[in-house]
TrEMBL record:
Keyword rRNA-binding among record annotations: no
One of the protein's GO biological processes: cell differentiation
One Pfam family this sequence matches: Copine
Domain C2: 1-119, 128-250
One GO cellular component term noted in the UniProt record for this chain: plasma membrane
Domain of life: Eukaryota
Keywords: Acetylation, Calcium, Cell membrane, Cytoplasm, Differentiation, Membrane, Metal-binding, Nucleus, Repeat, Repressor, Transcription, Transcription regulation
Name assigned to this protein: Copine-1
Family membership: Belongs to the copine family.
Keyword Lipid metabolism: no
SMART domains (UniProt xref): C2, VWA
Gene3D superfamilies referenced in this protein's UniProt entry, alphabetically: C2 domain
InterPro entries assigned: C2_dom (IPR000008), C2_domain_sf (IPR035892), C2B_Copine (IPR037768), Copine (IPR045052), Copine_C (IPR010734), VWF_A (IPR002035), vWFA_dom_sf (IPR036465)
Length: 542
């Protein structure tokens, strides 16, 4: 199989996290904690791997969302857990109270049943109170359970209103009940329909349809003292017999009243077990990753012949542009069989008529802008540099739209056979902000991702907005991107880090972006995959 040299069988693990005795930062109530997981990628840089849900008003939360990561026996994977009190809707954690963190290696978690660590404010400085408990489970199964659940005639629990119901699912194991999913709260409603949700099958029932499952329906109280409405016991096999109905029973009420029937009915409308394909399933199923490069030749880079220019080639023939290109390109090129990469420049006056161009072929051959390998792009760049006049403005939209045209053609085929990654190397703020937003929102519906590496020390605030970590990117008319496809990284953060650290950070989101696109289209891998011989999940080496 193509790429098998890269696709070592890597074990996927999922971490279950809970905390005890967290500090209460909120006046008059308990904290609203969330746990974020980071991994050390070298050079003092940490990459976020995921976060749990936020649990409201709770100083000893049990998080239902597990965090998944690859386990590499051959490397020490340093992890950092951060617990934050979330009091706003922004995904940025800088404006939330830090309740404490803990560092350990994945090996430590894997080798202990439950690893308990005291929370620290920083290394050597304890938070004063609070612990975190982490346990790991190997993920051998790539199936997920997708469910939609509603309820009828729930008991009224609130003195002035109805009830604010939410659901919790637990699986039985080792003589204990393990939380596997907690729904959202629906306010003031005795006949709620909860949002459709998906949980890894292994987490939900250990992969066994007959494992006992407990479902609890409770009335949410803002002080954290939730009242039980009722509960029932079932199994995945019973839940799948849709439409399935279960009586919600409150044990104390049942004992006290002979006439007691139930405290409401829970109806399972959808319960499906589906295969969740991974990045490697798609790549090994024949998906080609087409890599395109765009290089900024605007005047703000400085005269290339001057040593303080970002385009100045040192005596060894390198600069920040080339270092960034090598770092990212050397990883991506392994996923492209023909190793022919289109490479463009933008923001320069180009011969012979010296018109400003925002998408000129680096090899000056518009009908065949392909360069052979990353080295071919480097050679074309070095040859183009003395032949163009640096100018402006910094327009991204033409190159994004150029790649989008190819991505749209690929999407028409209706198969998971091609995905496009555009690497933009730039020294400064984008000029055509509105056109770039339009281009990115349009491209978010196509099989493509955009990586922007900011070179030099300019102000990159406008770039951070394109990287929609603060909510979906929108056009002027209000149309929202269907998914986040832009990853922006300032190169200077990685100047002293190992070369692979930049690539790991900028490429970290591409697998998820690729999977999210093909999943949204409902496309399975292009070629069917043979089942793994040993039953372990397969994933690429980082």
């Amino acid at each position: 199989v193509k790429m098998m040299h890269m696709a070592h069988c890597v074990t996927l693990v999922q971490l279950s996290i809970s905390c005890d005795h967290l500090i209460d930062k909120d006046i008059g109530s308990k904290s609203d904690p969330l746990c974020v997981l980071l991994q050390d990628v070298g050079g003092g840089n940490w990459a976020e791997l995921g976060r749990t849900e936020r649990v409201r008003n709770c100083s000893s939360p049990q998080f239902s969302k597990t965090l998944q990561l690859e386990y590499h026996f051959e490397t020490v994977q340093k992890l950092r857990f951060g617990i934050y009190d979330i009091d706003n809707k922004t995904p940025n954690l800088g404006d939330d109270d830090f309740l404490g963190g803990a560092e350990c290696s994945l090996g430590q978690i894997v080798s202990s049943q439950i690893l308990t660590l005291p929370l620290m404010l920083k290394p050597g400085k304890p938070a004063g109170q609070g612990t975190i408990m982490v346990s790991a489970q190997e993920l051998k199964d790539n199936r997920v359970v997708t469910m939609e659940v509603e309820a009828r005639n729930l008991d009224k629990k609130d003195f002035l209103g109805k009830s604010d119901p939410f659901l919790e699912f637990f699986r039985q194991g080792d003589g204990k009940w393990h939380l596997t999913y907690r729904s959202e709260v629906i306010k003031n409603n005795l006949n709620p329909t909860w949002k459709c949700f998906s949980v890894p099958l292994q987490h939900f029932c250990g992969g066994d349809p007959s494992t006992p499952i407990q479902v609890r329906c409770s009335d949410y109280d803002s002080d954290g003292s939730h009242d039980l409405i009722g509960t029932f016991y079932t199994s995945l096999a019973q839940l799948q017999a849709v439409p399935a109905e279960f009586e919600c029973i409150h044990p104390e009420k049942q004992q006290k009243k002979k006439s007691y029937k139930n405290s409401g009915t829970i109806c399972v409308k959808i319960c499906q077990v589906e295969t969740e394909y991974s990045f490697l399933d798609y790549v090994m199923g024949g998906c080609q990753i087409n890599f395109t490069v765009g290089v900024d030749f605007t005047g703000s880079n400085g005269d290339p012949s001057s040593p303080d220019s970002l385009h100045y080639l040192s005596p060894t023939g390198v600069n920040e542009y080339l270092t960034a290109l090598w770092s990212v390109g050397s990883v991506v090129q392994d996923y492209d069989t023909d190793k022919l990469f289109p490479a463009f420049g933008f923001g320069a006056q180009v011969p012979p008529d010296w018109q400003v161009s925002h998408e000129f072929a680096l090899n000056f051959n518009p009908s065949n802008p392909y360069c052979a390998g990353i080295q071919g792009i480097v050679d074309a760049y070095r040859q183009a540099l003395p032949q163009v006049r640096l100018y402006g403005p910094t327009n991204f939209a033409p190159i994004i739209n150029h790649v989008a045209r190819f991505a749209a053609q690929a999407a028409h085929q209706g198969t998971a056979s091609k995905y496009f990654v555009l690497l933009l190397l730039t020294d400064g703020a984008v000029t055509d902000v509105e056109a770039t937003r339009e281009a990115v929102v349009y491209a978010s519906n196509l099989p493509m991702s955009v990586i922007i590496v900011g070179v030099g020390s300019a102000d990159f605030d406008a770039m951070e907005q394109l990287d929609a970590d603060g909510g979906p990117l929108r056009t002027h008319s209000g149309q929202a991107a269907t998914r986040d496809i832009v990853q922006f990284v300032p190169y200077r953060r990685f100047q002293n880090a190992p070369r692979e650290a930049l690539a790991q950070t900028v490429l970290a989101e591409v697998p998820t972006q690729l999977v999210s696109y093909f999943k949204a289209q409902g496309w399975a891998p292009f070629k069917p995959l043979p089942p793994p011989a040993n039953g372990t999940a397969q994933a690429p080496q980082a």
